[in-house]
Amino acid sequence: MTESGGSDPEDSGAPRRRIGPYEQSLRESRERAVAAEREHARRRRRTRAVAAGVTLVLVGGLGYGAYRYVGQREVPTTVPTVAAQPTSCAHPVKVRVAVAPAIAPVVGAAATSLAKRPDAPCAAYTIDSEEPFSVAGSLLGAGRPDAWITDSAVWVGRANAVSRSNLVPAAPFATSPVLVAMNDEAAAALGSRLGWADLLGGSVAVRVPDPNRSAIARNVLGVAASSLPAARMRSLVTTSAPTAGGGVTLEGLARARGGAVVSQAQLVGWNAAHPEEPLAAVAPAEGAPALEYSLLPLTTDAAKARLVTALGSYLATAETQKLLQDSGFRTASGNPKDPSPLYGQIRVGGHADGALPPGVASLWNASSRKTQALLAVDVSGSMLERTDKGTRLAIVQKSTVRALAAVSPTAIASLWVYSLHVGSRADDFRQLTDYAGLGVAKSLTALDAAVTGLDTYVGGGSGLYDTIAAAYDRAKGAWRPGFTNTLVVVADGPNEDDYGLTLDLLKKRLAAAKDPGRPVRVVVLGIGGRADAAAMRQVVTVTGGEYVSTETVEDLQPALAKALGG
């Protein structure tokens, strides 16, 4: 035995006794056993540590995944492509609702939830995400939905002027304040300079949409005009107008120094759909009028009108109000959480009457790009073929009126149709409306009526080549200086006129007619993959134009709006 702090006799300098083989084997066995126990204990500790780490990773991953999943559920970011079938009946009534894009995903989610209820109305609600300006200019016939959710009462006035309706603005069921979206670094660099005069027309490039087509832009410019110096406002307008569209895109802002005017709901929707590129919110000190979302029944069918009312009632329920608030909208029952990060304090200011200062409106129109387009639409017999969304013609009619109504009101357009011998003198083409400004209600009314009546001309083959030649001559003859002059042809198939121009003759005729001093660009839109792409590319190359092929006829609308200068 040794005392505390003493040494083992075997470790001392005293002479050691001799150890025999048997005892030596016992000692080695004991040492191996101890070493084995130590290694086993070490492995147990390592296993527990690894298990704990894996658990943390799994919990963190599941937590993040749950966050992403729940976040996506709470903030709908896409619009259902197919109407939800109600559980309450087998043969629902189809109800089409045109909805402002920022709120369309929430309305789509609400319609889907409503369909799952045992007491759901017997309706299949199709939600079409449509810019309110475009809907307002195309309610006369082919483009008229059963109901409309707009973001400003100003578009109701436009709708009444164009479609000769007597719509009355409804009380909004949701609103959304106007902000500026930009990346966090750019927002932080602003410091305390958060007025509209600091944000617009200065060193930070802020995207502003066309106030002729955007309630956001009208609301912002109406407030900012009182604080921006005249030179700053002129710089903002002349810089923004030439490239502005009816809305703004947030693409690329996460890596850019500038920003864009948006609604709070649009910003929340972007961040939910793009967690890898989140944007900060900048709330200008003066605020701006909020967007106001209201539901307007448009159908004259009493049964459908009741179904529209049922949807409106569901939008006012606590369940949907919560969904709206989670998505960045204010409702009668409460406000959404502030976006994060937020610079400044969100406030609503000014009047949401949509009025623009006269000087700003005239300067914008003078600075915006100008387009003059002759639009020739295929009405050959193939347009009567049916799809799951109606005939090809019906889809083309809706797409055409929406696209014409979506472009800038400074644009000018004429409408032709073509098929074999459709003209009054057995020509393969017929003019339905002459060139007219799309900023004039009477012109849009005439175009809407003409497109609605296209079914009276459908039949026969496609006189495509003769039509392109004649339409090019007309566009060149009506050439307008200061405008982009374009011939836009919607083609549902190849040329089918065996007695008209051949491809080679058409190219020679276009080459001979081309005048560098009066350029006319030819754009051919082949819908549903039926057009002769190789032939059309040869044709448009002669005039420096473009051939665009859409996979389905439903893809026509955005391509057509772009071709028309939208």
Helices and strands in order:
Elements: H1 21-74, E1 93-99, H2 104-116, E2 123-129, H3 132-136, E3 147-150, H4 154-163, E4 174-176, E5 178-182, H5 184-188, H6 196-199, E6 206-207, H7 215-224, H8 230-240, E7 259-263, H9 264-273, E8 280-282, E9 291-297, H10 302-315, H11 318-326, E10 342-343, H12 358-367, E11 371-378, E12 386-387, E13 390-391, H13 392-406, E14 412-418, E15 429-437, H14 441-452, H15 464-477, E16 484-491, H16 503-513, E17 521-527, H17 533-542, E18 546-550, H18 556-563
Parallel strand pairs: 1-2, 1-3, 6-7, 8-10, 11-14, 11-16, 16-17, 17-18
Antiparallel strand pairs: 3-9, 4-9, 5-7, 5-8, 12-13, 14-15
Helix pairs in contact: 4-14, 8-12, 13-14, 13-18, 15-16, 16-17
Flag low-confidence runs: 1-30, 39-73
Classification by helices and strands: alpha/beta
Terminal Cα span: 100 Å
Tally of helical segments? 18
Backbone shape: globular
Q: Please, what is the average pLDDT?
A: 87
Question: Which percent bin holds the helix content?
Answer: 25-40%
| Percent strand | 15-25%
Note the main sheet.
6 strands, mixed
Using only CA atoms, what is the Rg? 33 Å
Spatial ordering of strands, largest sheet: 15-14-11-16-17-18
User: How many distinct beta strands?
Assistant: 18
Overall description:
Keywords: Membrane, Transmembrane, Transmembrane helix. The chain crosses the membrane at residues 49-67. The protein is an alpha/beta fold. Helices cover 40% and strands 16% of the residues. It has 18 helices and 18 strands. It has helices at 21-74, 104-116, 132-136, 154-163, 184-188, 196-199, 215-224, 230-240, 264-273, 302-315, 318-326, 358-367, 392-406, 441-452, 464-477, 503-513, 533-542, 556-563; strands spanning 93-99, 123-129, 147-150, 174-176, 178-182, 206-207, 259-263, 280-282, 291-297, 342-343, 371-378, 386-387, 390-391, 412-418, 429-437, 484-491, 521-527, 546-550. A 6-stranded mixed β-sheet has the order 15-14-11-16-17-18, with helices on both faces. It has a 5-stranded mixed β-sheet with strand order 2-1-3-9-4. The chain has a 5-stranded mixed β-sheet with strand order 6-7-5-8-10. α8 runs parallel beside α12 (358-367), α13 packs antiparallel against α14 and α15 (464-477) packs parallel to α16 (503-513). The longest helix has 54 residues, at 21-74. The protein is globular. It starts with 20 loop residues before the first helix and ends with a helix. Residues 1-30 and 39-73 have low confidence and may be disordered.
